[in-house]
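Sample intake — ATP-binding protein
Collected from: Anaerostipes hadrus
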Amino acid sequence: MLKKIKKIDKMSHNKKMKIDMKKEERTKLMSFFTSNLSGRVRNFELPATKALMPLYESIVNSIYAIDERQQKENSLNGRIMIHIVREPQQYIQTDGIDGSINDITGFIIIDNGIGFNDANMKSFLQLDSTYRIEKGGKGVGRFTWLKAFRKAKIESCFENGDQWVKRSFDFMLNQDEINDSLIKIDELKDNKTVVTLEDCLSPYKDKLPKGGDNVATKIMQHCFIYLMSPTCPEIIVVDDINQQTYNINQMFRNSIQEESNPIEFEIKNEKFFLRHAKIMDSSFEASKLYLYANDRMVQEINIEKYIVDLDKNLFFEKGYYYAGVLSGEFLDKNVGTNRTSFMIPNIAENDLEIGMNDIILNTSEEIKVYLSEYLKEVKKKKKERIAKYIKTTAPQYRHLLNYMEEDIESIKPSLSETKLDDELHKIKRKFEKQLKEENEKILKTLEVGAVNLDSYQEKFANQFAKISEANKSSLAEYVAHRKVVLELLKKGIRSNDFGKYSKEAFIHNLIYPMRRTSEEIEYQAHNLWLIDEKLAYCDYISSDVPFNNDSKEGRPDVLLLDSPVAVSDEENTGREYGTIIIFELKRPMRDDYTSSDNPIDQMMDYAEKLKENTVKDKYGRTIKTSDNTQLYLYAVCDITDTLIKIARKYNFCETPDKLGMYYYNHVINAYIEILSYDKIIDDTAKRNKILFDKLGI
């Protein structure tokens, strides 16, 4: 028996009718639509991420074929076998264990359903068949075969009347007709239909899972709703080369704990049905919501993105992921022709329309009710963790706990401290923006005199409280920054595991960025407060900038000019300075100072040059001094043996705490002090202790 998909030609005028010229005006010519398989497949949308869709379509077709046969034979045990076809075997040796690296190229699907009888064959030959429209069939599933595979081979044995027959044919794009052979065969014991999907094409081949276990898991996810039915046929996946067999039904029973009855709820008068399930299988990797249409899974959604306190910890703590199966007539009616997406807008354009966002958010609320006990526990722990983090590490966010509670609750529970801080910073910025807008609104209202001050007293009080909290936050952030800087300095003066200390540049940049001036950096960019709080307010500061901008000249590590003698609002263009401060920084624990290489003589040389009034700053302005200009010279370093010998020659005295040494040179009017790193850390810690204690850091 031979059947063909016939091309419908234009009706021949000569063969079909003879047109009488006198009756031409009354003659009606009939035109017919034609079908082009190649064009239909070419225009068929199948994303590369849906590479397993052809396999799913075959399995669902097998389920329907078995269901059709079960309606006639109640005792039928339905069975579907899926064989994975791989490239020729290759092996790699890894620690003595063979590892397969060959890719999947196709699948063989075998079922004992009704078979390709005349009715099913007729439906197959219609490009958009309505044969299974009552089951939601679109008549397009086989297009996915030719979209992703070079060829599909069909061989079906079934009982036709009082005899057994076998129908077989190839289905491919490069042939215009199907050579359908139907032959009589010896009596069989059971029906058998084999669909072979051969040679997966690019880009779908690269998107196929590598392992048979992954294929089996994907099938289980797609066939979720069928596996829930007691009449679901047995589905077996066989990875022949790897000699692995996966019983999908058993996997489902082992890993899925489902609720017996679905929950019904409405969205804008449309009914939806949600079935809850718990998945005890780590390969699912996240809690999911599966959107079904006509009993087929169409869209998979990571519901963790929509439920804040739901994440992978659900599996780690409770041993399962959540899975929801959502169905309803609205989804059935709005599934796309290709069954890979829904024809539903993300956001509804009006109050009567339902958007995908409406569906997901409403379903999320139902899921929250189902997982309420767990989510309540997570929310409590998250709140405690955030409060502790703010109290001990980031006090600048403390006011957010009172004023931005909803935003705090929107933070995911398992973020790292770094990401948690990022989220809190975003919320803080949002608070500041809102505060600014509210301030402007209040000021604008007062300006136009449209408000009674007494009636708005409470509103103003609340706003002033917010402003106060914001100011405290800024102060807390700055104090927390000081704590970090102090810890960095402590770390910088310690040796590493190899007995080496930080280079001078590390300490230098920590205190004041090298090769920069106070006109080039913001106040917050330096940490002169480590030495003295007053230093930050000097008239001019330069760091590692040579005198006269000449690289051959001396370059104080830090030079501070303050208190010009002439009082003026103009910039200093050569007036005398009342105070000049110089810092010379040395590597921690340096102990190789000599009479010609030491910070004391180095700073005194700088001082004498400044006294000559021949030195200019970075911007070409003369640094003028007088006999009354007071010089303060500070050597910041560790007081080691070689430095002590040099200091004694100048009659340096010890500071009362024995952590430093000082000396006054009357000739150049300079106070000289050796500041040890230990003294700086000790003094700074004492000055800031009350601030650290108040913030609990």
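Post-analysis note: The chain has 21 helices and 24 strands.
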